[in-house]
């Protein structure tokens, strides 16, 4: 994995391990690159020495890791990618499938949700991942396209980050420098919550939309806080799909080159139902308590 620090990663792994376990496939290792390219390269090279039949992986950098992923294929190990293939690898000789969310669909949900809070001729801000990463590129691309197509009156300003642990100050400084920004799209849930904390500390209250339904953003949304709409992935179901693709590849069946799961729109009104659908478990008490206090949540 590229990271294990977010709900998305944990749910994906749960879906993979449960499905493979039910099929009698042993998982011999799970690695966490912490978004560091050299760490992921070392993780892959170590796994190759263990001679597994197949590796499931999301590239931290699809270009910088490409040669190492080619070593996987050269070693006769089958490969299923999460979200995107490494650059220059060929289907089906180098990898057997890519299982991905609808990143542009999620970007569209986030853009449409944010638009409701941007006045005529207003300004929307984007807090983006300033790394050439296919998944996040697709999200931001669609956010900008959606505004151009549907709200050409809205001006777009943006700020980027590369350190995933230093988003809060970047967002706060951006808002200080751009007080005309009426709302923010933040690229995924963890940076969004860092932004929320920093803006709250600075006394700046702006609506935020993001991608990925994690417990922290669920509580923030349920309480009527900064988070107003989420374009959610289905990480557990995606993990199931990745495991099924792996199983088919292991027995020699051809798997489609690209399988995409649908985007899910999450608002306060459907939060509880969508949380249960995405997490495959009931919402935790902290989400239920926030819903009860605010009275904003529909559904269960």
Structural features, described:
It contains 11 helices and 10 strands. The mean pLDDT is 96. It is globular. The protein has helices at 7-22, 37-49, 66-74, 103-115, 134-150, 167-177, 189-202, 215-222, 235-250, 271-279, 285-294; strands at residues 54-57, 78-82, 97-101, 123-129, 155-161, 181-186, 208-211, 227-232, 258-261, 264-266. It is an alpha/beta fold and 300 residues long. Strands 5-4-6-7-8-10 form a 6-stranded mixed β-sheet, sandwiched between helices.
Summed up, what is this model?
The protein has 300 residues and is an alpha/beta fold.
Keywords, please?
300 residues; single chain; four-stranded parallel sheet; six-stranded mixed sheet; alpha/beta
C-alpha-based Rg, rounded: 20 Å
Cross-sheet strand order for the largest sheet: 5-4-6-7-8-10
Task: Give the count of helical stretches.
Answer: 11
> What general outline do the C-alpha atoms trace?
globular
**Could you give the count of β-strands?**
10
How far is the N terminus from the C terminus?
34 Å
Q: Report on the biggest sheet.
A: 6 strands, mixed
Mean pLDDT: 96
């Amino acid at each position: 994995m590229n990271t294990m620090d977010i709900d998305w990663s944990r749910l994906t792994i749960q879906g993979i391990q449960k499905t493979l376990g039910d099929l009698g496939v042993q998982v011999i290792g799970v690695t966490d690159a912490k978004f560091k390219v050299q760490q992921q390269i070392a993780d892959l090279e170590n796994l190759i020495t263990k001679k597994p039949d197949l590796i499931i992986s999301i590239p931290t950098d699809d270009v910088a890791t490409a040669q190492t992923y080619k070593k996987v294929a050269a070693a006769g190990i089958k490969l299923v990618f999460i979200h995107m293939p490494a650059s220059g690898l060929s289907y089906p000789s180098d990898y057997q499938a890519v299982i991905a969310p609808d990143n542009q669909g999620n970007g569209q949900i986030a853009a449409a949700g944010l638009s409701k809070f941007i006045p005529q001729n207003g300004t929307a801000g984007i807090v983006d991942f300033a790394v050439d990463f296919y998944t996040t590129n697709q999200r931001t691309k669609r956010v900008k396209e959606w505004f151009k197509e549907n709200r050409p009156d809205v001006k777009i300003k943006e700020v980027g980050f590369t350190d995933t642990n230093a988003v809060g100050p970047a967002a706060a400084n951006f808002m200080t420098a751009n007080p005309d920004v009426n709302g923010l799209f933040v690229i995924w849930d963890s940076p969004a919550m860092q932004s929320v904390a920093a803006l709250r500390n600075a006394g700046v209250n702006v609506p935020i939309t993001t991608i990925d339904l994690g417990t922290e953003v669920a509580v923030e949304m349920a309480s009527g806080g900064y988070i107003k709409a989420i374009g959610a992935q289905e990480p557990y179901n995606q993990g199931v799909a990745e495991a099924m693709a792996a199983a088919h590849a292991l027995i020699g069946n051809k798997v489609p080159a690209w399988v995409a799961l649908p985007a899910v729109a999450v608002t306060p009104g459907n939060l509880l139902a969508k949380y249960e659908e995405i997490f495959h478990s009931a919402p935790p008490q902290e989400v239920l308590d926030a819903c009860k206090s605010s009275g904003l949540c529909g559904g269960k």
